Every structure is written in C-alpha cells, then in structure tokens.
C-alpha cells in the first residue's frame, strides 16, 4: 500500500507558487532524503490539473501536508490523500 497526495491548485496559483516554491521544494528534498516521499510531480497542465506525490505511509503524507508552504500559504485550494494499491514494481 502506498499513499497518493493530490493537490488542487488555487485560482491564483501562477502568482503564488513562485513565492513559496523554494520552501516547498526544500520540504520535498527533506522528505525524499529520508525516504518519506517516493515521487512527486505535476500533471500536464498543473494550473488546471494540479499535482501529486506518492508516499510510503499515510503518516508521511499527513506530515508533509501539515507543514507544506503550498498548503499553508494557499497555493493549493484543496488536497486529498488516497490509498493506492501498487501492483507492478521494478
């Protein structure tokens, strides 16, 4: 079981994201460095489709969201954490 975090962007994401991206990216790097985030990225059109990240545990996903500048500063309108049953791995 993995956990997928889905972000829905705020209406003014293009104005807000650049201001908070350095802190958001530092958080991604920190979580990745300790193995608590496996993958992260945007969809084809991040302004309308948002982004997602994959975590090994629900606790890691919840911890990430709780301190993510994109959430705290309103870069994302909403988020959802979903359980994901990974079937095929390397």
From TrEMBL:
Q: What InterPro entries does UniProt report for this protein, alphabetically?
A: Dimeric_a/b-barrel, YCII
What positions does the domain YCII-related occupy? 1-85
Any matching Pfam family: YCII
Family membership noted in the UniProt record = Belongs to the YciI family.
Name of the protein described by the UniProt record: YCII-related domain-containing protein
Q: Which organism is it from?
A: Actinoplanes nipponensis
